[in-house]
């Protein structure tokens, strides 16, 4: 089939989808997918994030509550304005070169709620009948008509100055915010920027004295793990001369500058006090914020918890700590390896923080460094992940278009493909590194998807947000013995000089670093809202039965309470969907 035919095939497929929707024909709709195709929908057909695997599940979803008919999807049109251009053929990974898929971007409208939406489909030929059908179909609510996100330069009325407009806005937001965002790092600030463009008054509160302090307080050599383009903010990119891997202080300053550049309203030295109460009748919270030592009472309709996925440090309570003559601290407050040159260091834990901190000790000349690994860890070279990211967020395309395409790929399918061969390829590429680790006694894992196969680093990240590291030299140092390993033994207690293990063995230490993880955002939230309320909310992170991330930028299980967590790409992309869900509540739009 000639390349020019991608447009013809895609147009025909979209036409068929349009007809199926016009006739409210769920059978015809699902028949446009491959038998094992996945349909991911964000807010077009329900006020939630859904991923339906296989035609049967799609059919049920469309018929439930008469969804397809109620939504009234119409006005489908190919969208060539994205960085992807018109529909195009792409090689199918792992398939012979003659097998090609077709990717198309499209727009459409909804009757209920009146809205515009965007879609992306990846078509492949069905071996049964030779027709192109969707391997993945993605639909995503974009704008509610009449409440569109402001795009581009705002108009400043001739009668007012920008300062007057700003003062009026600040006064409105400070006295009666519709949304209170707790936490002014990337998730909180990007959400605030998005809500601002959607016309939703949002106040951000931050417990630290300066925005960015939570990064500034970390050890000197800390950098982001992925390159700056992927970690860029919403509506603006970093200056061209920024470092490729953002050092923590540069990021802290960039976050602070973002408050000004996006004209956000942020209170620093401000914390939400326990215990906010929610009135079902008015749909408002009653909250008290301690701002610079003074209580401020507010009645927002929504609270967005953006206090960080990790939350409070998890500190194991082994006995004998008082007898230990050395220093013990959690990885979250690692002051930098230069404080411990020539010392014996034990790092407890074998995840990303443990690997980063071990490497910091290597660079700073600690005498002996030992990593304590309790179970098994997934280790993947940073270069593999980088290549993956470069492919998905290429320079040639806008970050926004890339975010859309990445999120158009259902996570359930990502796990399926990883388990079906992707992880094996990753393992092959890292074979030598893994061999070195194994010889040193290190235990490796690639996780499991429901017992179906190994899901690799991304899968483990999606399921646990821990239990892996992106390697930047730590593996080599373990293989060479520069970083020693203590594997598979529980720590029983501290003694004067270090740690004693369950089998009676000992490790001498001047410094013990507890890279033992965090208690999670629900723990933080429980301390503010009370355990009873938070126990009723969904888990945050990990995947639900459909492969959607639990609790992240979607209904929490409690009205007016939301969790904004995740990496930079999540904040950029899903802040829109959080804004739309909040608008839907404000406009009393039914699911
Ligand atoms: C070394 C390292 C490298 C990383 N690299 C990447 C990367 O390359 N790409 C990527 O996407 N992610 C990366 N991450 C992960 C992720 O982006 C960060 O964990 C990020 O900090 C999450 O942002 P956040 O806004 O959710 O929360 P946080 O950055 O944790 O910020 C939470 C904010 O809330 C404030 N706060 C907390 N409690 C309260 C309260 N009760 N009241 C008021 N304010 C409160 C805190 O002071 C803080 O400012 C990296 C993380 C680390 C540690």
UniProtKB/TrEMBL annotation:
Which molecular function GO terms apply here?
Answer: flavin adenine dinucleotide binding; N,N-dimethylaniline monooxygenase activity; NADP binding
Key words, A-Z = FAD, Flavoprotein, Oxidoreductase
Q: Give the signal peptide as a residue range, or say none if absent.
A: none
**A Pfam short name:** FMO-like
The protein here is known as FAD/NAD(P)-binding domain-containing protein
Q: Record the organism.
A: Exidia glandulosa HHB12029
